[in-house]
Amino acid sequence: MTESDRLETLRQAIAACRICRDQPLKGEADRLPHEPRPVAVLSTTAKILIAGQAPGLRVHDSGQAFNDASGNRLRQWLGVDRDQFYDADNFAIVPMGFCFPGYDAHGSDLPPRRECAPLWRQTVLDSMPQIELVLAIGHYAQKWHLGGRAAKSMTDTARDWRVHMGVNRGLPVLPLPHPSWRNTSWLKKNPWFETALVPVLQQRVKALTS
Ligand code: SF4
User: Fold this and answer.
1) Ligand 1 proximity of 19 Cβ (cutoff 6 Å)
2) pLDDT, position 105
3) Which of 41, 42, 115, 122 is the pocket-test mutation for ligand 1 (most atoms within 8 Å of CB)?
4) Which of 116, 120, 121, 140 should be mutated for ligand 1, with most atoms under 8 A from CB?
5) What is the pTM of this model?
6) What pLDDT, on a 0 to 100 scale, did the predictor assign at position 86?
7) E strands in the chain
8) How far apart are CA 171 and CA 157, in angstroms?
């Protein structure tokens, strides 16, 4: 079986996953309130892994990762257009939870489903050994990819980005905030992100993409 065949088998297994609907970890009350629709881009050739949080409703509806305002801002940070972004030779996109988790009582997206990463994440990473850089977006991805080296707050973790560009779990990790409009005030309060981190991010992306 080739690497591509193996990845395709994994892709199909993820696409068929219904665990959060059929066997939610925390019981009936925590059942995913809609049909699962896993959204991820696996690749045998991409050198950059975008480790996001979980799809929002718009991504759930379209089935295309970061096909929303957050994606537009992320593409701007990366310095790529949509064609480059959606080219699986450039980026693999693997969120911490593959399915839209629904909303909380305040209308905000719920955290990534806790069933997903233990079930799929290491297998997915093992299937893409060519990855050279992880872009860890938000606290959940940073905690997973940096382990005990992630700070308690996303801001502190991102502020230490030069340290985290060193080797973690065998891969350099660049921690980023979520590109959501909800983080616009965070960006204003942390200008170093766009003046210091984004230029380095764009250099790395240029060097690792076609
Ligand atoms: S979030 Fe992950 S574990 Fe849950 S149904 Fe979707 S693919 Fe399966």
Assistant:
1) yes
2) 93
3) 115
4) 116
5) 0.95
6) 98
7) 48-51, 91-93, 133-137, 167-168, 171-176
8) 16
The whole-angstrom separation of Cα 85 and Cα 83 is: 5
Nearest atom of ligand 1 to the alpha carbon of 97 = 1
The three-state secondary structure class of 69 is helix
Task: Give the integer Cα–Cα distance in Å for 24 and 6.
Answer: 27
The predicted pLDDT at position 146 comes to 93
Helices 198-208 and 69-78, packing angle to 10 deg: 80
- Given this model, what pLDDT does residue 1 score? 83
The encoded tokens of residue 6 equal 């193996």
Side by side, the strands of the sheet bearing 171-176 are 91-93, 48-51, 133-137, 171-176, 167-168
Q: What is the pLDDT of residue 168?
A: 54
| Residue numbers of the chain with a pLDDT score lower than 70 | 167-170
Query: What's the gap in Å between 19 CA and the centre of ligand 1?
Result: 6
Q: Which atom of ligand 1 is nearest to the CA of 18?
A: 5
Tokens 């764009």 locate to 202
Closest-lying ligand 1 atom to the alpha carbon of residue 119 = 3
pLDDT of amino acid 210: 78
Topology of domain 3-209, per CATH? Uracil-DNA Glycosylase, subunit E (3.40.470)
